[in-house]
Design goal:
The protein is 13% helix and 20% strand. The protein is α+β, with helices and mostly antiparallel strands.
């Protein structure tokens, strides 16, 4: 007949661990002295299995009634109380070559997050050449937009070609025609600086003719007074900027360059 029949789960576990670790309880017996010298003999080192707490035991020590198990198997691990056994579990190292002790699977490294090109932060050293509060905006104003674009080296080649260097963030989207922004021109007319868009920009656009016919005002393509009738004089100060699309209303992502100053040739 099976001796475990009729026993509770806790009683079966006690019987199991007693069969593995011995039936005695309390501290292991002191070995007799050396027969030749009479010196005490050091107790034998615990087996490799006993120097490690089996992971299955650590699970059992979390169950109700496990103190019954602890008093039988504690001496095998030099532990006298349930709390001492549990402390061993907290710092237990699995025994790779002990039968029945599972070897933990290696933890895979965390995946490397994808690199996202951030929108450039505004340069704290870049400022507008004129205060935006002093400008009359003839199209929707980009004055409050962050300075996420750059503009430099604007040149006017008479009779009507204008070239420049510029950059725009990658998150400025293209419309169906590849347009991502507008070029602006600003001039002082009747004592006030007026600004208007005069050209659509694709990402590769770095030069444009004003498209004025002979005899027409050079910035007629602004299509808004008074800049569409402005006739610049040689040496007159003029200002430029680029922005995300605002000619037909500012829509979508918002950004602009700082306003830079130039002189009409």
């Amino acid at each position: 007949m099976n001796p475990l029949v009729g026993l509770s789960i806790i009683e079966r576990l006690v019987a199991l661990f007693k069969s593995i670790f011995g039936k005695g309880k309390g501290n292991p017996p002191t070995p007799p002295p050396n027969a030749t010298t009479g010196d005490p003999v050091a107790p034998a080192a615990p087996s490799r299995r006993h120097r490690y707490v089996p992971l299955a035991l650590c699970v059992i020590l979390t169950m109700p009634g496990c103190s019954t198990i602890a008093k039988y198997i504690g001496p095998a691990f030099q532990a006298e109380t349930l709390e001492q056994l549990r402390d061993l579990c907290d710092s237990a190292v699995p025994c790779p070559d002990c039968p029945g002790t599972p070897v933990p699977s290696p933890v895979p490294p965390a995946p490397t997050p994808p690199v996202v090109n951030p929108v450039p932060a505004p340069d704290a050293g870049v400022v507008d050449a004129i205060p935006v509060s002093s400008i009359v905006w003839l199209h929707d104003s980009p004055a409050a937009f962050p300075l996420t674009a750059t503009l430099s080296d604007v040149r006017v080649t008479l009779p009507q070609t204008i070239s420049w260097r510029w950059t725009a963030p990658a998150d400025w989207p293209e419309d169906g025609n590849g347009v991502i922004g507008n070029m602006w021109v600003c001039a002082k007319i009747d004592g006030r600086v007026n600004c208007a868009t005069w050209e659509w920009l694709r990402r590769t656009t770095t030069a444009k003719a004003t498209e004025a016919n002979p005899g027409e005002p050079v910035m007629i393509q602004t299509k808004v007074a008074p800049l569409n009738a402005w006739v610049p004089r040689s040496g007159e100060e003029v200002w430029w900027l680029v922005s995300s699309p605002c000619r037909a209303g500012c829509k979508g992502v918002k950004g602009r360059s700082a306003i830079i100053a130039g002189v009409w040739p």
